[in-house]
Amino acid sequence: MVSLEPKGPANVANTASPLKANKSPGKPANGQKFKPGGAGGAKKFDKFGGGAGKKFVKPGAGGAKKFDKSGPGGFKKFDKSGATGDKRLGGNKFAEGNKFRGKPQTQPQAPAEGEKQDWNKFKKEKKDLKLKRKSAKDTYEISKEANQIHEKLRCRRTENKDKLVEQIYKVLNVGDTISKVVKAHDTARVIQSMLKYASPALRAEISEKLLPFTVDMCQSKYAQFCVQRMLKYGAPATKAKLVDSLYGHIVRLAGHSIGSGLLDTMYQSATPNQRIFMRQEFYGDLYRKAKDSNVKTLSDTYKDATNMKASILGSVKANLDHVANKQLVDSALVHAVMLEYLRACDEDEEKLEETVTAFAALVPHMLSTKEGSEAGVICFYKSTPKNRRAIIKNIKEHLLKIATHEHGHVFLISLLNALDDTKATKKAIYDHLHGDLKALMSSPYGRRVIQWLVAPGDTTCFHPEFIRTVEEGLAFGKKEKELRRKEILEQIEAPIAQSIAEDAAFWLSNSHIGLVTGDILNHIQGESYEKAASALAQVVAQPEWRISADAAGPQPQDKKKPHNDVEAIIAQATKQRRKLLNFDSSSGDEDEDEDEESDDEEDEKEQKEQKEAAEDDAEPKVKKAKKEPKKPKAKEEEPSAPLVSGIEEAGMHIVLKKILKNDGKREGNPFSQQLLQNLSSGVLKAWLGVNRACFVLLKLVEECPALLEDCKKAVAAERSLSQILADRKTPGAKLLAAKLDIGK
């Protein structure tokens, strides 16, 4: 217990302590709980002095003070800055005898009170101090020399860059200097340029020097870019060694904010055996140092020893939980291990529920790979109703990205097929996607989501194997399959028909979108069908109906396959650069090398990221005047896809025949009747001269015999139309003329 008496000489002078009077035995007078002291004495709990019943009172002017920081008589118990006091906490850490004493650093002296600050002198002192601190490092002179050569190396017009790389390597190849400088923000860029411009033999030698430090480099803010350079420019043998050097540290890197991204890149470029060995480290400590080539999946680890299953699954769960707590599950390696674990835990409901609960919030980040999408589907199927609602809530803000993703759309279709509450399905999913229907229809994967909503399980739209996989989720629902699908279609057909009526030209803008439009038109009923059919018929009957010929368009998910012979590619690019450089220097052209621009832009982007990271660690600098931003170069506009006549395009011809095929079963005002009503004589004249248009008219009268007379009247209304049809020798014109009894 802390003593209430002040320490030091002041206590000696005050012989009769007023605090002792409070300790006298007996009852306090007048019913007071705490007896107040005299006029000059200390009041233990009297804040305002003298008042009865005041429980918390500050000491009087002449009394002892428990924590006296400013009084002239007492000592300071916690004195951090006094000249003579006992410094128990704080004080000068550089004083003699302090065991925490570090290197003394001289700081620039602040001006005296009333004097003006000499900023030039202040900046000079700061600069000198920074230089002194840098020069204290043992690699300062070597780094300085390497940076000077690097300034020449990074210039675009510099020739014989491989020679400069050799010079830098001679400077840095002293002891373990490379391992020290690779983590610094400035010399890390030197190593990157060396890996880029070095000859194949020297690049392999530099990589061999760096391989023992790969694990530390993968976790460094700056050295990680050197690992990226080794992956980009290294030979296949170097890349294989790079992956091998990570063995024993896979789980640690998977849970590291910087290393997880590099680990994912290496896993995707690794060989099948290397992928297996990387997954094995999640199975337990047994496989971290010793790899087993007979263990291909998680189930192989306990195949011969079933008593080990619980402990192995516990290790996998602990490793997955570690990665999940860091929210670093967007990795193909983690997705593969997660899928194996969920399949192995099929019988253990308790462990499965714990894992599903932990990963429910991270499902949107698991849908970037095929294995991750399958794992997400299993998580949703095996979840409790509470976890299902949590998963749906978490994917709401990412619905468009998921629906247009190569693997994410499979998860979304599986979810749509397994939910029993169709009203909640429409509200939670379709209503959020309705505003982006055009974006969905422009994506090949988004179109599959729309097709499943209107034509689920249709073998003309989906592969039987895909349907079988998706329908596995029906076992986890209670409602009948046909009833569920009918309820969903009834709820979404009206808003989809409204979207088609508002912009019918878009829904027939190319053959791929047209195929989905045809599926929609063949499944919706009643007023929704008539509204959509009327709008589409008006577009088809327009004389200037044009659609995009390049229907497929660019595929954003496509990835270029890396070439195996990296050295040949680099050598060929070097020759092209030299030719261009020689041509530019002889002709005096001011344009820069186009072959190197894309590579240099990537370097500048990475250097900018490193510079921003370095500025975070650097000392604050004086602001400079802003330079005027450079005007961006005008980019050439990409040529748009050519437009062709919609009635002549092969894909759209199939779409129209598909729509007309189901018109014979419909009652009321079908698409074929509205199309024939909207055809003007000018459009009909143009159609009769086109072979595919004649086949469309032939299909129209074959599927709807009631329209045969109307078609005859339309053609016979003008003699020129009958003459054109009779004169045409195309197969479609001949068949149509025979059907309409023209020319006989």
User: Which shape, going by the Cα principal axes?
Assistant: extended
Broad structural category:
mainly alpha
- The value of Rg in angstroms is 40 Å
Distance between the termini: 123 Å
On the 0-100 scale, what is the average pLDDT? 78
* Low-confidence regions: 1-69, 71-91, 551-564, 587-595, 618-638
Q: Give the strand content.
A: under 5%
Strand segment tally: 2
Task: Explain what the structure shows.
There is one protein chain. The chain is mainly alpha-helical. Among the domains are: 132-245; 248-259 and 267-384, no CATH class; 520-549 and 643-740, no CATH class. Helix content is 55%, strand content 1%. A two-stranded antiparallel sheet has the order 1-2. Helix 4 crosses helix 6 and helix 16 (332-344) runs parallel beside helix 18 (370-381). It is extended, with a radius of gyration of 40 Å. The N and C termini lie far apart (123 Å). Pumilio repeats lie at residues 209-244. Residues 1-118, 577-646 are annotated as: Disordered. It comes from Drosophila mauritiana (Fruit fly). GO terms for molecular function: mRNA binding. This is Protein penguin.
